[in-house]
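Input.
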Amino acid sequence: MFTGDRSGDWLFGSMYRTGFASQPHSVHPGDGLELRDAFVGAAVRCAPPANRPLPAERDNCLPYLERELALLERCRVLVALGSFAWDGALRAARALGVEAPRPRPRFGHGAEADLGRWRLLGCYHPSQQNTFTGRLTEPMLDAVFARAGELAARRA
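Output.
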């Protein structure tokens, strides 16, 4: 996931700069990229038409995300890349028995929500639409992953 595309260049570049990846790019499986204390999952597991996932696709993929979160016992921080991922993380946590905070946490870049065993961080998706327009910059992305590192160290 994200391997060999521009979104991945942004994502892995930031993860490299903040200590979560062994190199700043991934161009193909087996190219040497190793994630450190990180896992990349998805609320939607396949590329939807026009890159616009529908709620039905998210709901169809939700059991995969739930299972991944259940298996990642050491996971303490979730970074949601976009509002769709934010919503997916909240839904998966609820399905795993986590009582969602009230009122429902709103997505925003740099938003945080306490989900019991996890801290959820919001981040604009590193899509070309966001990076080409300047809505998301490298320092903004780096700040979210730096925050994730701080939170993970505190919650360990």
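Strands lie at 77-81, 112-115, 118-123.
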